[in-house]
Amino acid sequence: MLIDTHAHLYWESYQNDLDLVIQRAKDAGITAIINVGVDIEKSREALQICEKLDMSGVEGYSTVAIHPHEAAKYISNETLKNDTQQLEQIYLSNPKKVVGIGECGLDYFFESNPGFIPPSITIDEVKVLQKKLLQAQVDLAKKLNLPLIIHCRDDRSKDPENSEAWDDTLEILGDQSAILHCYSGLSHNTSYILHTTNLTVSFAGNITYPKNEYLREAVKLLPLDRIVLETDSPFLAPQSKRGQRNEPSSVKEIAELIADLKGVSFEEVASQTTQNAKSVFNI
Ligand SMILES: [Zn+2]
């Protein structure tokens, strides 16, 4: 029994063989998949795919949100208000299936994706817009009593232990329940998380990459009752499939490595992380 808490099954690369992808997930023991939205349209598509998942015998759930890469579109407060209302409408259309607000957050790693900043605004202005966009979604999560799925990224080449994006994110989140998606393993964040009760971390396929020893250290430091599993499909394929399209079945490989690192059985990792995901998403 495994849950993939973060996949994007509406992605174009699944257009031709989604049935097979779901079947392989089922064969790998995945019982539920959370399909994560990144903008209004994708949040709608994420919800639509739940039906297909349910019919295939894997429980389908979705989340709604606007990704920080979209922040430059929200210079007008009116646009932000309208779009936040649209996210709420998607939730209200099927509150049993829409189980969270995500992925939203802050992404200050601008060099990795220069395309998302229009030349007319500065980096500092984009940061302000990202914070405003995140705050609106934290407010929505509070209003609807839903957990958040947080995307937070900074430029690791600067000073990995001194992350402005993380400081800002944790401040805006406050004590709202949230999953830190694709956890980046900074040691001062791990200590912070250990002192909270509202934060759960989600590990993805990048814990299997040879150079990511710091992530495996974070796996060892965090107790199993604070961890959930994700694939971020179609991204972040584990080492065995690196560079290829990822899919939810590979959540098994992540669970196996976590079991190994913690010196516990695969079954224990599967059952505890499944219980954690069910409790965060109230499913
Ligand atoms: Zn994602």
Structural domain count: 1
Q: Indicate the percent of residues in helices.
A: 40-55%
| Ligand roster | zinc ion
Distance between the termini: 14 Å
Structural class: alpha/beta
Summarize the main sheet: 8 strands, parallel
User: How many DSSP E strands?
Assistant: 8
Q: In terms of per-residue confidence, which ranges show pLDDT below 50 for 5 or more consecutive residues?
A: none
Number of helices: 9
CATH topology: TIM Barrel
Shape: globular
Characteristics:
9 helices, eight-stranded parallel beta sheet, globular, 283 residues, binds zinc ion, TIM Barrel, 8 strands, 16% strand
What does this 3D model show about the protein?
The chain has 283 residues and is of the alpha/beta class. It contains 9 helices and 8 strands. It has helices at 18-27, 40-55, 77-93, 123-144, 164-173, 187-194, 213-221, 251-262, 266-281, and strands at 2-7, 30-36, 59-64, 98-107, 148-153, 178-180, 199-203, 227-229. It has an 8-stranded parallel beta sheet with strand order 1-2-3-4-5-6-7-8. β4, α4 and β5 (148-153) form a beta-alpha-beta unit. α2 (40-55) runs parallel beside α3 (77-93), α3 runs parallel beside α4 (123-144) and α8 (251-262) crosses α9 (266-281). The mean pLDDT is 95. The structure holds zinc ion. Zinc ion binds next to loops.
